[in-house]
């Protein structure tokens, strides 16, 4: 599994967020949350534009697009 780093902007502040990244063919997904249920792994994934991924410092990737993740308190 790959790792991705992006700048997070919320409530007037900013910082970095690290997320897991998965690929299926030409499609790329950010794993927002994952839980195991018995022998199964349930994942909440958000599809991203793979052309906006760039090699970052170290072994990770950086995403240069806008990533809007739902807030748990709104669900």
Describe the structure.
By secondary structure, the protein is an all-beta fold. It has no helices and six strands. It has one domain. It has strands spanning 2-10, 13-24, 27-37, 40-48, 53-55, 61-63. A hairpin with a 2-residue loop joins strand 1 and strand 2. The radius of gyration is 13 Å and the shape is globular. The mean pLDDT is 79.
Tell me the layout of helices and strands.
Blueprint: E1 2-10, E2 13-24, E3 27-37, E4 40-48, E5 53-55, E6 61-63
Parallel strand pairs: 1-6
Antiparallel strand pairs: 1-2, 2-3, 3-4, 5-6
Short description:
By secondary structure, the chain is mainly β.
Order of helices and strands: EEEEEE
Q: Categorize the overall geometry.
A: globular
Q: What spatial order of strands do you see in the largest sheet? A: 4-3-2-1-6-5
What are the low-pLDDT stretches, counting only 5+ consecutive residues below 50?
none
Give the count of helical stretches: 0
Number of discrete domains: 1
Share of helix among residues?
A: under 10%
**Range of strand content:** over 45%
What's the rounded overall pLDDT mean?
A: 79
The helix/strand class is mainly beta
Tell me the number of strands.
6
N-C termini distance: 27 Å
Our Rg estimate from Cα atoms comes to 13 Å
Q: Please give the largest β-sheet.
A: 6 strands, mixed
